[in-house]
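User: quick one - fold this with EPZ bound?
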Amino acid sequence: MDRIKITGGRPLEGIIPISGAKNAALPLMIASILTRETLTLHNVPRLSDVRLLMRILGNHGVDAAISGKRLGQSEESGETITLSARDIVDTTAPYELVSRMRASFWVIAPMLARMGEARVSLPGGCAIGTRPVDLLLMALEKLGSEIEIDSGYVIAKAPKGLKGGMIDFPKVTVGGTHVALMAASLADGTTIINNAAREPEITDLAECLIKMGAKIEGAGTSQIVIEGVARLDGAHHAVLPDRIETGTYAIAVAMTGGNVLLEGARADLLQNALDHLEKAGATISVEPTGLRVSRAPGLLAPVDITTEPFPGFPTDLQAQFMALMTRASGPSRIHETIFENRFMHVQELARLGAQIKLEGDVAIVKGQSRLKGAPVMATDLRASVSLIVAALVAEGTTTVNRVYHLDRGFEALEKKLGRCGADIERISGEG
Ligand code: EPZ
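Assistant: Sure. Structure tokens for the protein plus EPZ:
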């Protein structure tokens, strides 16, 4: 198992290219099941989650291939992946695969819409909370599917095809909205999704489905209307830039000081987080090729945050912002409202010297902590990267174990930070 070793204390200076968004690439790849034609995705990040999903889709009969490099492409250019689901050979998604990546549960929607049946393992527990799938199943039922749960598997059937319907989500769900969008695109008649998630990754999926021939209006708002079509075609689509990767590096620069251009980043994808970062003391400017982030040396201002569905502060940046606040000039409150157990990083940040008190779904960060390097490990992707952010300013050396969490969602993290002056290296092998 690889580890990452960081010696803190260096400001970040230079350019960090922003990759395609993991959380857009995954549902886009899954949408390939909706058509017999080839879906070509550009700007796909090189991540272990993408590789694993290629395997999972392959199990259903999807031919997934990574195209070779093209003229003018650099190491930073994302990959082009072609996905052809000409014949679906297996409508079962087994526990061994779904339990390794929750998002793969979403194959249930295109499979059901196209094949009239799907048998998908329930994903099980997860490091950040219970994360049920009841709302995803409710959406499929509203579209006329019969759902049964047997021996840990969801068996969904719609032998005569799905029918358009009214889906009112009692709570905003990204996965639920993805599933409803994909299923409704091939349903007979009109579907209205109320209280839909407005995350940019939803809009990206809708734009790709529209290129494939779907009739969708209102993606990016809380009401989406879909007029089902009989078949979808192939398309080309470029994955949007990763707003969580952007926010993470912006926080890292605010933490270390320095000046970095986040190449390809788009401010509109994370305006709320950028506003909070500016309040904390970062300077952010939009440039023709991306976002520039800088901070003069000195203490950061304490800033409270509350995580919310888009366009609010993203839960996927909560851990990183908490790491930043350990260095603020006073106390701050971090309120997590999306997942009930997303504070697993608190104990690991404490190993680096952070003083954080938990009160239910609120973390009170003391601020002005002197961070000192230590061996740490984390239980999920965003928690792991919060330790990297802290380690960048900690005195001495921090070793982050279980780097496979980082490899799920951050492309070439040590290279991107290393090129901007961080003292960071990956140590391969047992750990
Ligand atoms: C997506 O997860 C992201 N994953 C998560 O990113 C992200 O944290 C989350 O959205 C919120 O923004 C991907 O896009 C692959 P939800 P998802 O359905 O779709 C509850 C990362 O680190 N809920 O919006 O699973 C749920 O428990 C990951 O990249 C139900 O109660 O999240 C949570 O409290 C982690 N019943 C809330 O809704 C359901 O059926 C929002 O979850 C579904 C969800």
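One thing worth noting: The pocket of EPZ is lined by residues 23, 26, 103, 129, 131-136, 171, 173-176, 315-316, 338-339, 381-382, 409 (CB under 6 Å).
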